[in-house]
């Protein structure tokens, strides 16, 4: 496989990802990850912090729930969407790593670096 062919499974077009409107929307909503039995983690908007708990609004259905602050994980800005090297993530946590790998896999980007190590997710299909 030629280098150029292999690159299409690693690199994403940053011009498509770096959207200033998405950045502003992310900052205004205070987006975070919260645990979910169904999906592992799901996006939510941080509404209020009260002592050791926080009130978040789930992105999927708009439902407000009270959750322990320790269970909340910060979400990365949109400019880190489908990032090639996860060491670049500003919020390096379980939810962000899983979300990045999932986004990249569904976009056909099966190779992802984590520092010096390459993470490969098998697409279970023949590649050119």
UniProtKB/TrEMBL annotation:
TM regions (residue ranges): 105-124
| Biological processes, Gene Ontology terms | actin filament organization
Residue intervals of the Myosin motor domain: 81-128
Coiled coil start-end: none
Task: Supply the SUPFAM superfamilies for this chain.
Answer: P-loop containing nucleoside triphosphate hydrolases
Q: Does the keyword Cell membrane apply?
A: no
What InterPro entries has UniProt attached to this entry? Kinesin_motor_dom_sf, Myosin_head_motor_dom-like, Myosin_S1_N, P-loop_NTPase, SH3_Myosin
Domain (Myosin N-terminal SH3-like) ranges: 27-77
Which keywords label this protein? Actin-binding, ATP-binding, Coiled coil, Membrane, Motor protein, Myosin, Nucleotide-binding, Transmembrane, Transmembrane helix
Indicate whether Ubl conjugation appears among the record's keywords: no
One GO CC term on file: membrane
- PROSITE patterns under this entry? MYOSIN_MOTOR (PS51456), SH3_LIKE (PS51844)
Under which name does UniProt file this protein? Myosin N-terminal SH3-like domain-containing protein
The opening ranks of the lineage are: Eukaryota, Metazoa, Chordata, Craniata, Vertebrata
